[in-house]
Amino acid sequence: VFVGNLSWNADEDMVAAHFAECGEVLAVRIITDQESGRKKGFGYVEFADAESAKNALKMHETELDGRAIRVDLSIQKERAEKKSFNNKNSFTPSAPTSAPADTLFVGNMSFNAHVDGLKELFGEYGNVTSVRIPTDRETGAVKGFGYVSFSSVDEAKAALEALNGVDYEGRGLRLDYSTPRDNAGGAGGARGGRGGGRGGFGGDRGG
User: Which intervals of the chain are annotated as region Disordered (predicted)?
Assistant: First the structure.
C-alpha cells in the first residue's frame, strides 16, 4: 500500500509496527531524495497477502508520530508502467505546445486525484518539489487540472515523455510544460483568489 503524509522522523520500523495489526508486513520502503537523501514524506508497505493490504486501508488518517497518514492501494505506479497498446490507445496525447520548463501542466485529471498520489506517480521520474491542484473557491472541488514542479527541466522532460497519455484514476493524462503565466494562475487557483480565473483558463486551454 501507499502511505503518505509521513513525518520526517518516521522510519521503516515505526511504520511496520503501525501496520502490524493489519497482517504480516514483508517490507517497508520510505522514499528519499536521490541527491540529498532526505525523506520525501511517503513510502510503501508490502504485505504477505492482498487481504492484509485491504485491511491496511482502515489505517487511513490514523495518527503516526503526530501526523494523520494517508493510506491507499499502490496502483498509480502500476498504471503508469502499463505501456500496453490498449492503454495508450484509449487516449491519444498531443505533443507539448510550450517550451520545456521545470513545471508540468497536468490536464484531463481525475477529480479523485490528490497531492500524495501525484507525488508518487511523478516522483518516479525526478525530485518533485511541489504539487498544486487548484480547487473551486466556492465548492472546494478540484478543477480537473494541476501543476507538478521538478528540480530540473530534464526531470520534467522525463516525466512528460513517460506519462503523457497514461491512464491515471481512469483518465488519460494530458501533459504540457507550464508557462510562467499558467503556473501563476494555478497557484492562485489553489488559494482561491482572483488567480483562480486564470488557472481555470489554463485548464480550458490545456484540458
Answer: 177-207
Give the whole-angstrom CA distance, residue 60 versus residue 70.
5
Q: Give the domain extent around 46.
A: 2-72
**For residue range 5-26, what is the model confidence (pLDDT) as tens digits?**
899 899 999 999 999 999 999 9
User: How far, CA to CA in Å, does 48 sit from each of 25, 27, 56, 112?
Assistant: 6, 9, 12, 28
pTM summary value: 0.51
What single DSSP character describes residue 96? P
180-191 helix and 195-206 helix, angle to the nearest 10 degrees = 120
Q: Quick check: 152 and 73 in contact, CB under 8 A?
A: no
DSSP 142: B
The answer to whether residues 66 and 132 belong to one domain is no
Are the C-beta atoms of 129 and 149 separated by less than 8 Å?
Answer: yes
| CB contact at 8 A, 58 and 72 | no
